Task: structure prediction
Amino acid sequence: MADSDAVVTLENVTVTYGRNQALADVTTTFERGAVGLLGPNGAGKSTMIKSLLGFVVPSQGRMRVLGLDVATSPIAIRARIGYMPENDAHIPGMNAVSFVAYCGELAGLPRTDAMQRAHEVLFYVGLGEARYRNVETYSTGMKQRIKLAQALVHDPDLLFLDEPTNGMDPKGRDEMLELVRDLAHNKGVNLILSSHVLPDVEYTCDSVVVMDKGRIAAAGPIEALKQPRGRVYELRVKTSSDIEQFFGQLRAAGLECHATDEDVVRVFVPGEGGARQLFALAAAAGVQVRHLRPSVPTLEDVFAHAVGQD
Amino acid sequence: MPIHDQGYRRYGGGKSAGRAWLVIMTTGVRTMLHDKRFIVLLAASWIQFVVRAVQFYLSANFSQAALIAPNAATFRDFFDKQDIFVYIVTVTLGARLIAQDRRANALQIYLSKPLTRAEYILGKFAILAGFLLFITWVPAVLLLGVQVVFAGNFAFLTANAYLFPAITLYAAIEVTMVATAMLALSSLSTNSRFVGILYTGLIFFTSALSSVLRFVTASTSLSWISFGNNLAQIGDVIFRVPLHYQTPWPVSLLIVVLLTAVSGVVLERRVRGVEIVA
Result:
C-alpha cells in the first residue's frame, strides 16, 4: 500500500504510562475507507487513538493523520477529524440540537450552518424526534448516537470511533453498524473503528489492524487475512481422558485450537494435511471424533491467531 | 425506511479557525442569561450603583450634601462593597465552569475539536471575567460618567484623571486573580458544590487566620496571608488612599501574582483530553 493511500501512519510510536508501555514501537498504516482497530481490552487501541488526537504525547515515534504531522499540526488535524469517545461524554446542560450545533461552532462552522447541520445530522443518526431533549436524559443507546452526531456535524474527512456499540441493545447496535457502514461505503468518510467485538468490525470494515499488548499483531485487508493458509474445521470429540490433553497434542503437532461459544472447537490445520491429519492424531490419542465439519476462516480465526488466544 | 437512507450531506461551506474561545464564551454567557436567579443576582449587584448615582446627584445639586461629594475613596469603597457580589457570582458561576465539564467527560469532546487547551481555558475565563467586569468595572466607569452628567462639568474628572485607569487596573487585577483561582479550583474536582465550598473555605479561612494573627501580634504586617487583604492593599495603592495594612504593597502584589501563576499551572496540568493515572 502506498503512503498516499494512507489516512494515518505511525512510525515507531511508543507510549508509556509510568512503567507500563501502552504502545511499544508501533509502526503501521491505516488505509482509506473503513479500518477496524481490533484487540482485547488493554491492547492499546484507545491509547493509539488518543495519541493520534494529540491527547497523549508519545515518548518516541512519528504520527501522521491525513498527511499532517500530529506533533506539529494538531489543530489542523482536529479540524478534519471527528472523534466519538468510548465513554459517556457530553456538554452538560444542553439539549441535543444545541449540543451538536455547539460542537459544529467549535469546529469552525458559522452559527447558522452549525445549527442546520445539527438538525440534519441528528435526523441521520436517528435522534430527530428527540433533538430538543436534554442530553442528560438520554438512554445509553441515544448517548452513543449523539456522540456520533457531534463527531459528524462538521463533516470530517476521518472519523475515530471508539467502541461505538458499547452498551447498545441488539436493535440499536444493528442500526449503529448500518450508520457506520453507510458512512464508510456510501458517504466517502474514512473511519477507524476501534472495537473488541469482531462481528462489528467484520461487518463494517474493509481492513483491520489487530493489536495485542501494545504491538501490532496483524494488519491488512480482512479478506486477505482470512485467506486460508491451511484448513479450518469445526470439531467435537469424546474422550475418557482430559480433553485438554488432546488439544495439547494437537498443538504439539502444529495445529491451532480455538474454543467457541458452542461446544465445538475450531481447529486450524496448516498445510495440506487436512482432515486426514486430524483423524490420525485423534486415533493416536484414542479420542472419538463425533463431529467434523470443514469451515471457512473468519475474522475471529485471524484475531485468535494474531493474539494467540485459545 | 432505514435510518441511513434519510441522508447525510457533505458540508460545502467555509470554516473559520481561532474563534473557538469566543464560541465558548458567548455560549456560556447565553446559557447563564437564561437563568432567572442569576439575572436577579446581577440586578442586585447594581443596587450600589443606583445608590451611588443618587449620592452623586445630591452632592452635585444640593450644597447641603457637599459632605457626601465623591472622591477617589468613594470609588475605592465602591469596589470594596461590590466584593460580596464578586464572591457570589464567582461561586455560583465559576465553580461549575470546568468541574461540570470534567464530570460529563466534556473535555475530550472540546479538545477533539480544533481548539487548544489555552483557548478552552480562555473561553471559560472569559465567561466568568465578563460577568465579574459587568458588576465591577462597568458600574464604576458608568459612575464616573454619571458624576460628569450630574455635575455638568469635567472638573472632577480632570482633577482625578487617574481614576479611570485606576478603576480599569484594579478591576483587571481583581477579576484576573479571582477568575483564575476559581477556574483552577474548578478543574480539581467534578463536583461544583465541593469547589464552591473549597473556595469559600479558602477565602474565609485565610481571612480568619489573618485576623487571629493581627490579634496575637498586634500588627497587620502578616495580613498578606489573606487573599482579600492583598487585593485591598493593592487597591489602596492604585486608588491613592491610605493603606489598610502594614504589609508592604509589593508583597501583596507578589502574592497575587504567585496565586495567579499557581492557578495557571494547575489549569495547565488539569485541563487535558485524557486523565492519566500512572
